[in-house]
């Protein structure tokens, strides 16, 4: 699997992304589209997950079966990442969940970690849910912290990224993978992605910006 996957020619992801970008999408519908995109991103991220083989007894005979060969751990970056978690669990129901709380300083735009709680990560495939990969600072911090806990593979799932954000995460963490629905041209003066979709957390939870 490539280190960076951009689903920009995938019409199934595209229809969800267009709805999330649309300024007229209300929070109730935003949550629905975020959930669906979360499932699509998660499936893409684990499509080369090592498998364990077994058999299953059908009403007529036995059939070969396969299942996940690694523990999957989803780590939403609070709070926006929560929007992708339901969809991830729809398709990966046995995923354990950790949480990282990162707060962006409004002046410096630097991430400050205020919460970190994860299950054991030794050998796990970790999916970091960071919908807006803007400067890449939060995602990079999250990936470094998870790597240090012994994860075998860390993949960042993002809805909209920038080149700058992708470069930062890859430079800081050479083994990481990124799966994103889109890469947008750049950032505005407040480090918001343009054209982007606005503040993901505000739109998800209906908080005024
Ligand atoms: N976080 C958001 O929610 N939106 C952006 O555009 C950038 C960071």
Helix-strand blueprint:
Blueprint: E1 4-6, H1 11-21, H2 27-45, E2 51-57, E3 62-68, E4 72-78, H3 82-91, E5 96-97, E6 99-104, E7 111-117, E8 125-129, E9 132-133, H4 137-147, E10 153-162, H5 163-172, E11 177-184, E12 186-187, E13 193-194, H6 200-205
Parallel strand pairs: 1-11, 4-5, 4-6, 4-8, 8-10, 9-10, 10-11
Antiparallel strand pairs: 2-3, 6-7, 12-13
Helix pairs in contact: 1-2, 2-3, 4-5
Quick structural gist:
32% of the residues lie in helices and 33% in strands. The structure holds uracil.
Terminal CA distance: 37 Å
CATH class: Alpha Beta
Strand percentage, roughly? 25-35%
How many individual β-strands?
13
Any idea what the CATH architecture is? 3-Layer(aba) Sandwich
Seen as an oligomer or otherwise, the chain set is single chain
- Number of folding domains? 1
CATH topology: Rossmann fold
Order of helices and strands: EHHEEEHEEEEEHEHEEEH
Report on the biggest sheet: 9 strands, mixed
Give average pLDDT, whole number: 96
**Distinct ligands:** uracil
Structural class: alpha/beta
- List low-pLDDT spans: none
Helix content: 25-40%
Q: How would you sum up the global shape?
A: globular
**Number of distinct helices:** 6
Cα-based radius of gyration, to the nearest Å: 17 Å
What features would you describe in this structure?
With 209 residues, this protein is of the alpha/beta class. It has a single domain (4-48, 70-205), classed as Rossmann fold (3-Layer(aba) Sandwich). It contains six helices and 13 strands. The strands form three sheets. Strands 1, 4, 5, 6, 7, 8, 9, 10 and 11 form a nine-stranded mixed beta sheet that branches. The chain has a two-stranded antiparallel sheet with strand order 2-3. α2 (27-45) crosses α3 (82-91). The radius of gyration is 17 Å and the shape is globular. The structure holds uracil. Residues 80, 132, 134, 192-193, 196, 199-201 line the site of uracil.
């Amino acid at each position: 699997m490539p280190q960076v996957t951009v689903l920009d020619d995938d019409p199934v992801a595209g229809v969800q992304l267009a709805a999330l970008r649309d300024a007229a999408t209300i929070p109730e519908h935003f949550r629905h589209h975020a959930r669906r995109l979360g499932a699509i991103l998660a499936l893409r991220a684990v499509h080369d997950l090592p498998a364990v083989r077994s058999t299953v007894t059908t009403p007529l005979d036995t059939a070969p079966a396969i299942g996940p060969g690694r523990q999957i751990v989803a780590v939403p970056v609070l709070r926006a990442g929560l929007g992708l978690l339901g969809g991830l669990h729809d398709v990966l129901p046995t995923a354990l969940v950790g949480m990282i709380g990162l707060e962006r300083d409004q002046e410096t735009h630097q991430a400050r970690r205020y919460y970190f709680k994860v299950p054991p990560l030794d050998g796990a495939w970790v999916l970091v849910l960071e919908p807006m990969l803007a400067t890449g600072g939060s995602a990079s911090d999250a990936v470094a912290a998870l790597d240090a806990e012994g994860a075998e593979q860390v993949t960042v799932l993002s809805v909209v990224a920038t080149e700058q954000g992708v470069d930062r995460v890859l430079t800081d963490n050479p083994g990481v993978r990124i799966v994103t629905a889109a890469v947008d041209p750049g950032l505005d003066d407040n480090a918001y992605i343009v054209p982007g979709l606005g503040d993901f957390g505000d739109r998800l939870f209906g908080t005024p910006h």
